[in-house]
Amino acid sequence: PVSLVIKVSSGELSRDELLKQTTDLCSKIKQDLRLWPDNRMYKSEIMIVDSMSEDEILNLHYSCDCLVNPSYGEGWGFAVQDAIGMGKYVIATNQGGPKDMVYHSPIGDLIDGQTMPVSTVKNTFSGLFTGNENWTAIDIPKLKTAMRNAYCNLTRDDRFKNECKDWGERRMKDYSYDSVGERLKDIIKNG
């Protein structure tokens, strides 16, 4: 049995509007999957639309096996970094920080998407995420395939989970203060 935990946020919608929008989207996906004759037969998702403390976010990571981060634009991606550091499987859009962190990873999938002009973003910094910029809309069929593969691998046996943990610990050392500092010194020294 798998539980889908969905953590969403939006500066544009009220808590209730965001919850309704996400619930409606999940219902549409279930209807399109046609695995059960009635949507009520599916296991309910766990929806989180409220802000969370750092401890609550870490506990959420600890309780999950996989992070799916289909972001349009992610400068760094702290959720991805946290998940990798905790040895979780990561599925993310193939751009921004996640692209660098998950690249050549045996414990993650980078999903390509379509580059398109930024649209429908409100309540952000002035001059950021305007129609003069582009972002990446993830390829939904490829995302579905990656999620199915992750589910199959993570439920098969514990060896895969252990590989994720070992690789994540090694990968995060690449982003330690010491490692980043050494790379910066090398760049400054060698141009």
Question: Could you explain how this protein is built, in words?
Answer:
It contains seven helices and seven strands. It is of the alpha/beta class and 191 residues long. Strands 3-4-5 form a three-stranded parallel β-sheet, with helices on both faces. A two-stranded parallel sheet has the order 1-2. A two-stranded antiparallel sheet has the order 6-7. The longest helix has 19 residues. It is globular. The protein starts with a strand and ends with a helix. The model has no long low-confidence stretch (mean pLDDT 85).
List keywords for this structure.
globular, 7 strands, 7 helices, 191 residues
Summarize the structure.
By secondary structure, this protein is α/β, with parallel strands linked by helices. The protein contains 7 helices and 7 strands, in the order βαβαβαβαβββααα.
**CA-based gyration radius:** 18 Å
Low-confidence stretches: none
Share of residues in strands: 15-25%
What's the story with the biggest beta sheet? 3 strands, parallel
The count of helical stretches stands at: 7
Provide the helix percentage. 40-55%
Tell me the total number of β-strands. 7
Strands in their spatial order, largest beta sheet:
3-4-5
End-to-end Cα distance, whole Å, is 53 Å
Average pLDDT, all residues: 85
Spell out the helices and strands N to C.
Answer: EHEHEHEHEEEHHH
**Which outline best applies?**
globular
Structural class: alpha/beta
